[in-house]
Specification:
globular, 194 residues, 7 strands
Length: 194
């Protein structure tokens, strides 16, 4: 892996996406004291189950990749990539799907955000900023996201719109990456750049 490496790791829930990203961070850091790695976490703890899930991920990650620094960035992802991307720093984004959820479907308690960016709202500027940051990254990137378009077509229009938006976002991110890895049952399948 070199400083211009960009990989998009995609798959279903519990497919091994985060573990793949962590293994790439370990590989980047292994035996190279001048290298750094930053995980940009996009999850927000909106309920108790999500708080527990985030805490479990943090604990597991600290055990597997102790040198991987974590920063929490629920919305300004393009800006975060621009800030943290350096030739000696691997940036891991986990996860693109939660980031898009934060943009398009803010919690109901956030009425002002809902009016501005709710389902059907414009997230074009944020996505453009992200894609520009990926294209201009100074260092290696690993971006984690969910593939949710393989199942049954959702019944509600807002959910269908989200699945469509995520599919378009995934395609755009994949086009900016050297490698796309589909995780299935913990196994990597390289669909681009094998």
């Amino acid at each position: 892996m070199n400083s211009s490496y960009k990989e998009f790791v995609i798959g279903g829930q519990r497919s091994g996406k985060s573990r793949r990203a962590e293994s790439l961070a370990r590989l980047w850091l292994d035996g190279e004291p001048s290298r750094h790695a930053v995980l940009v976490a996009t999850a927000q703890p909106w309920d108790e189950e999500m708080r527990e899930r985030i805490a479990r991920h943090q604990s597991d990650r600290a055990g597997r990749v102790p040198a991987l620094r974590t920063v929490e960035v629920p919305l300004a992802l393009g800006e975060a990539l621009t800030r943290w991307s350096q030739p000696d720093t691997l940036v891991v984004v986990d996860c693109l799907t939660l980031w898009l959820t934060n943009l398009r479907m803010p919690p109901l308690s956030s009425a002002n955000d809902t009016a501005q960016k709710g389902a059907g709202g414009s997230d074009t500027a944020a996505i453009d900023s992200l894609l520009e940051a990926i294209a201009g990254a100074a260092g290696p990137l690993v971006i984690v996201g969910n593939e949710i378009g393989l199942g049954v077509i959702p019944m509600g229009a807002p959910v269908r719109a989200f699945v469509d938006a995520l599919g378009r976002l995934n395609q755009a991110v994949a086009s900016h990456c050297d490698r796309v890895c589909l995780m299935v049952a913990g196994q990597p399948l390289f669909v681009k750049g094998a």
